Amino acid sequence: MLSLEEAQSRTQDLVTAARRAGADAADAVYSGNASTTVSVRLGALEDVERSEGEEIGLRLFIGQRSASISASDMNPQTLGTLVERCIAMAREAPEDPYAGLAPEDRLLRQPPADLDLADASEPEPAALRERAHIVEEAARAVSGVTNSEGGGASNGRSQMALVTSHGFAGAYAGTSHSTWASVLAGTGADMQRDHASHSARYLQDLEDAVAIGTRAGERAVASLNPVKVESSVMPVVFDPRVGSSLIGHLVGGMVGPAIARRSSFLLESLGQALFDSAVTIIDDPLRVRGLRSRPFDGEGLPVASRALIEQGVLTGWLLDSASARQLGLEPTGHASRGGGSAGVSNVHMEPGSLSPAALMADIRRGLYVTSLIGMGVNGVTGDYSRGAVGFLIEDGVIGQAVSEITIAGNLKDMFRAMTPANDLAFRHGMNVPTLRVDGMTIAGG
């Protein structure tokens, strides 16, 4: 894998070559990653894997025609061929009135923010193996756990460099450390599985392996002896590890390409109250050590913390340059790597005022969902229907496990009926507290 300096130099050379070959404008992006993973199962070493990969991509423009091409071979001769092929492709491409680099006057000009994303420590495989053993042993030690799908530990490093022909050049690196375990409880057809994991930029921020393993085991045991639930309409409470998926659907409806294609369930919702006024959702790309932090977007524009939902109201779209031009708006610094689409970074919903217990206290009969199955969500209409696993809530208390259920509704209705608890924790790229959604349709087995 190239160093950051080499990566930035190589992308600069590619852009320079594209301009010399006749391109009116161009940008090049390099991405590289390396990781080591060690997994164990039933106390025995199962796999040690080391992977490295890198790719460089070129996007160029001839008038209003454009083409993109990429390669994993960093040899200068190969990159020369890449330029020739991309020029030939662009000349045959249809004209696109919205194609082009990001506006030059909006490029990031000052030094990128230091977000402290790269940990200098790199555990040896022996240390990863020890952590994998510890997390699996802790999970298997929970009474009722009968089998294991394994435990593991990993560390990795990723690097990104971006250069444009109109004046931007930047690069940054990030590291990750992870621990996980997945186990089964019960026997025969009554077996239930569950898992737990944690990832962090810095090894010192990683949760203790014993705690992760114990949580995996306790989750599996708690899900034993599930019952079926009658079909009805009732409140559904989403555990934070699955509640974030609801915000993912919101983000999917906000991205510029979906709005430009008129294929989003949020088309007529700009500036409207989608949630209760107590709900605010933040996208913060500049979070120090954030799992999705970045000092600039995929087109070289500056990034900043922004409320996607402010006091319940949808504030705007997530725009790369192409979709912004198509909509007659300005890009928002949300272009993904390479500028092909738009997306978010670290997203969280601000916590509410009630504890999870208080949030559920008045629920006579409802569901607490810990896992979702399938992809039954229509991004155009907002219709939502997914299989779910979790627990009954009876008289405000989480009780017996449930399975073979489907929860359904419409995302807009679900957003309006959503109430957050006060237990927000920053563990993932997208974080929410426990969420309650009233009035969902439940189809039982």
TrEMBL record:
Residues 121-224 form the Metalloprotease TldD/E central domain. GO terms for molecular function: metallopeptidase activity. Residues 233-444 form the Metalloprotease TldD/E C-terminal domain. Residues 26-90 form the Metalloprotease TldD/E N-terminal domain. One of its GO terms (cellular component) is cytosol. It comes from the Bacteria. InterPro entries: Metalloprtase-TldD/E_C (IPR045569), Metalloprtase-TldD/E_cen_dom (IPR045570), Metalloprtase-TldD/E_N (IPR002510), PmbA (IPR047657), TldD/PmbA_N (IPR035068), TldD/PmbA_sf (IPR036059). Pfam families: PmbA_TldD_1st, PmbA_TldD_2nd, PmbA_TldD_3rd. GO terms for biological process: proteolysis. Belongs to the peptidase U62 family. This is PmbA protein. It comes from Sphingobium vermicomposti.
